[in-house]
Amino acid sequence: MARRRFRHSQRSDLQADRSHEEYLLTQPAQLTTRTELLRLIRGGEDTYLELKVRLSNSERITQGIVALANTNGGTIIFGVNDQLRIEGVSNPEWVQEELGRICREEIVPPIIPLIDTVAFDSGKRVVALDVQPKRKPYRTREGRFYMRFGAEKREVSREQLSMWLDEIRPLAYENIPLFTAEEKDFDDSLLWSFAAAFEDVSPTINLYQTADFLKKDLILAVGGADDFFPTVAALVLFGKDERVPELFPRSVVTVERFSGENGNAQLVERQVVSGNLHTQYETLLKFIQRYCDLAKDKPAKKGLHLVGAPVAARSNYHLYAVREAVANALIHRDFALRDIQTRISIYDNFIEFVNARRTQGFVPPASRAIRYGITQRLNPQIASIFSRREYGTSVPRGGLPMILKQSERFAGRRAEVYTAKDEFKLKIYGA
């Protein structure tokens, strides 16, 4: 529970048996006192308060902290028995150090805890840990998720986890483990060609041990010694083409060619592109090149075209601007928005890229900032691997600023960027 929930002032009319939840909702923030701590303890355990006699099982404490963090925070007090009597802890300094280690090393993402030791006149001391959730969801290092239901903690089932993650829409969705994926679902040729491309590969690398390499070397999987839970990033980067859409359907991209210059234009061809990101990138570029000419420099003069011809002339686009736009559409999409699919639409004189991106908290300042290269990366792990030459995608550098600059230089018209209804849209005009 956040410090503001746990630190509260004295109230003379407070009932001693008031629950922790009722109490924290009515009290303003202030320093902790022994009296306040006693009142919390007398209310007993609930969704936001857990009482422990001692710290004897770090694994269970880790699970308890994760459960509180995933249930909007809470407080754990050490040194109190089941009868709500204060026994104290004999080594509060060690308890504080161990709690700090657990929050730092055993929980993903790490939690910055608020830890206090409160001493009583009897000489007994208790340790209070406040958990303030900032970056839900939280999990153990082994990839397990927990939540509190009343005074109990429970592991979240796979079905519940899927529904819960879609509801809270975590920003770090690329780190979510996929419990249905297995080692055999990965493209070993793509994975090991990536690994072999690094000249400084250690001789102790987990050669041809896909699970170990993803888990220990790339940090793209979680689990204990016998468990393997690859993350979303691992699957979309290195999954087999046929398995990626089955295990993660929201990863598909739709690309279309329309005959016309607006939304009423007639559809010429539509293709649903699936597979890992390497395959999607190459397939999308081939589709675009089927209907557009891509070049590094603007053509000296427009090719001959008959006036009134039934088919519009092919538009010219800056090669690197289009490549970067395709790459951005693939690596910066918000996977948490499962109902918004990435789309690329080709019209007679422009290409529009539409991506899922949470509008709340993003516009208008952030949408302006990204024009200058200042962005909030949703998928930093995906972006870092996808953009490396070892991955084999040959992605240009420069991001959105390069796209805006080069497309305007090439076509004489500035590209448009706008966001609405959880969608990020980029429109590049052709020459």
Quick rundown:
This protein has helices at residues 3-6, 20-26, 34-42, 58-70, 92-106, 158-168, 188-196, 210-217, 232-238, 244-247, 277-291, 319-331, 365-369, 380-386, 399-411; strands at 49-52, 74-78, 107-108, 114-119, 125-131, 139-140, 146-149, 152-155, 221-222, 229-230, 253-259, 266-273, 293-295, 316-318, 342-346, 350-356, 416-420, 423-429.
Plain-language structure description:
The N terminus is likely disordered. This protein is of the alpha+beta class. Helix content is 32%, strand content 19%. It is built from 15 helices and 18 strands. The longest helix is centred in the first third of the chain and has 15 residues. It is elongated and about 90 Å long.
Assess the beta-strand content as a share of residues: 15-25%
Distance between the termini: 57 Å
**DSSP summary, beta strand count:** 18
Read across the widest sheet, the strand sequence of neighbours is: 12-11-15-16-18-17
Structural class: alpha+beta
What is the average of the pLDDT values? 82
Uncertain segments are 1-31
Overall morphology: elongated
Number of helices, where a helix is a run of at least 4 consecutive DSSP H or I residues: 15
Measured as a percent range, the helix fraction is 25-40%
Rg from Cα: 27 Å
- What composes the largest sheet? 6 strands, mixed
